[in-house]
Design goal:
Layout (H helix, E strand, L loop, with lengths): L5 E9 L2 H6 L3 H12 L3 E3 L3 E4 L8 H13 L2 E4 L9 H8 L5 E3 L7 H31 L12 H17 L1 H15 L4 H10 L12 H15 L3
Parallel strand pairs: 1-2, 1-3, 1-4, 4-5
């Protein structure tokens, strides 16, 4: 009797919305995953996360893990650093009971995965420390940090427009907008909508929990989009 093919659940992460929309980074990860699974397993539903590696709120990763548990499959990641550079987060995933494998380190055990995670976190902290020290030294020499042109009224208005456009185009915000609009139509107030969004795992574009004011802005943008040309 033939042994059933191993089931893999692909998980991809890209750092920006633009990168996710353009396919840069994402296609390379898909190619690595397909090469790895070819001839040795079957790929199931894929999950794509768009956010910074510093943030450990990962609704798509949680969904991928739940799917892997449901089908008895293995979480498949192109590269270890696609998970996170936070060692504690890697260890929590390792101890969650969900099998996972990284295409770039298929033979890694729990010890090597932990070591690589610690090294990656140290690298991120070192880069951040060096950046702060360089800016402090520059400021001490009397340099004016920032770009004066960015302080004009026109520049601030442009920045506000870009932030608003990013919020409208952010995929998670689009989903949250639809959910919030439906809840509002059912009679939920802003506080209740915020609670429902947070409990469902949605976050604002900046990775924050929703509250009354952010829900109000979400609904205003949704209304503007639906009434637009």
């Amino acid at each position: 009797m033939a042994t059933p093919a191993k089931k893999y659940i692909p998980y991809y992460r890209v750092s920006t919305v633009k990168q996710g929309q353009s396919g840069l980074g994402l296609e390379a990860q898909r190619a690595a995953v397909h090469r790895f699974a070819a001839g040795q397993g079957q790929l199931g539903e894929e999950f794509v996360e768009v956010e910074s590696g510093k943030r450990n709120h990962r609704p798509q990763l949680a969904a991928a893990m739940a799917e892997a548990r449901r089908v008895g499959g293995t979480l498949l990641i192109a590269k270890l650093d696609r998970l996170s550079r936070n060692a504690g987060f890697i260890f929590a995933l390792r101890d969650s009971g969900v099998d996972f494998v990284c295409c770039d380190m298929p033979d890694a055990n729990t010890l090597t995965v932990g070591l690589f995670a610690v090294i990656a976190q140290h690298e991120r902290e070192t880069i951040s420390k060096r950046t702060r020290e360089a800016l402090t030294a520059k400021k001490a020499r009397g340099a004016r940090l920032g770009t004066p042109a960015n302080l004009t009224v026109d520049a601030r208005q442009h920045g506000l427009h870009v932030r608003q456009q990013n919020a409208r185009e952010h995929q998670a915000n689009k989903q949250a907008s639809r959910v919030a609009t439906l809840l509002q139509a059912q009679g939920y107030n802003l506080t209740q909508i915020a609670r429902e969004l947070n409990e469902a795992g949605y976050r604002t574009r900046r990775g924050k929990a929703f509250h009354l004011a952010t829900v109000r802005r979400l609904l205003v943008r949704a209304a503007a989009v639906s009434s637009g040309p």
